[in-house]
Amino acid sequence: MRSKIEIVTLFVHAFKFLFKMPVKIRLQRHGSKKRPFYFIVVADARAPRDGKFIQKIGTYNPLTVPASVQLDRQKALDWLHKGAQPTDTVRRILSYKGVLYLKHLLRGVKLGLFDDAAAMVKFQTWHTEHEAQLKKRQEDNRRNKGPRRGPGGPPARRVERRPEGPAQA
C-alpha cells in the first residue's frame, strides 16, 4: 500500500507532464518537388511539420554550395534560453552559425568564469575565422566547377539512336 505522500507526488508529476508545452526549433519545408527550401521555425512539438508555428527565425537552402542559411541569431538564442529544443538538423545549423557557441559563452559569463566583454571577443574571433573558411570554401567550389555550356560555349553533341533488330519498311 502506498502512502498519501507517494500518491500526491505521482499525481503532481503526472500533472506536470500533461500540461507541459513542448516547443521545438525545427525545419518547415517549402519549395517544389526535388527542390527543397526550408524555413527555420519555432513550433509546438505537437503541430504538423508544415503547419502552425510560433515564430519564423530564419531560412535554410541546402541546394547551394555551401548551404545558405539566414538566421536571426538573437531570436534563436532567446528561444534556446527559454527551453526550446532544436531538432538534430537545426542543432547542426545553429552550431554552424555560432548560436550554440554563443550560448556556451554566455553560460560561462553567468557562472562567473569571465566577463561579458571577453565572451564577445571570443565570439568575434571565432566568427571572423568561420567567415574566412566559408569564403575559401566558396572560392574552391567556383574554381573546381567545370565550365558551363552557354551561348559562347561549344555546341552540345546530339547522339542519334537507331532501333535495334530488323529494319521494317
Structural overview:
The protein has 169 residues and is of the alpha+beta class. The chain is 46% helix and 17% strand. It contains 5 helices and 5 strands, in the order H-E-E-E-E-H-E-H-H-H. A 5-stranded mixed beta sheet has the order 4-3-2-1-5. It is flat. The chain starts with a helix and ends in a 25-residue tail after the last helix. The mean pLDDT is 84.
Write the layout of secondary structure elements.
Layout: H1 4-18, E1 23-30, E2 37-44, E3 55-61, E4 68-71, H2 73-82, E5 85-86, H3 88-97, H4 99-111, H5 116-144
Parallel strand pairs: 1-5
Antiparallel strand pairs: 1-2, 2-3, 3-4
Short structural summary:
This protein has 169 residues and is of the alpha+beta class.
Task: Identify the CATH architecture of the largest domain.
Answer: 2-Layer Sandwich
How would you sum up the major sheet? 5 strands, mixed
CATH superfamily of the largest domain: Ribosomal protein S16
The helicity comes to 40-55%
How do the helices and strands follow one another from N- to C-terminus?
Answer: HEEEEHEHHH
Q: How many β-strands, per DSSP?
A: 5
Mean pLDDT: 84
Low-pLDDT stretches are none
Output the number of helix runs.
5
State the separation between the terminal residues, measured CA to CA. Answer: 95 Å
Q: Choose one word for the global shape.
A: flat
Strands of the largest sheet, in order across it?
4-3-2-1-5
By secondary-structure content and strand pairing, the structural class works out as alpha+beta
In the CATH scheme, what's the topology name of the largest domain? S16 Ribosomal Protein, Chain: A
Computed over alpha carbons, the radius of gyration is: 26 Å
Output the CATH class name of the largest domain: Alpha Beta
The domain tally reads 2
Q: Name the beta content range.
A: 15-25%
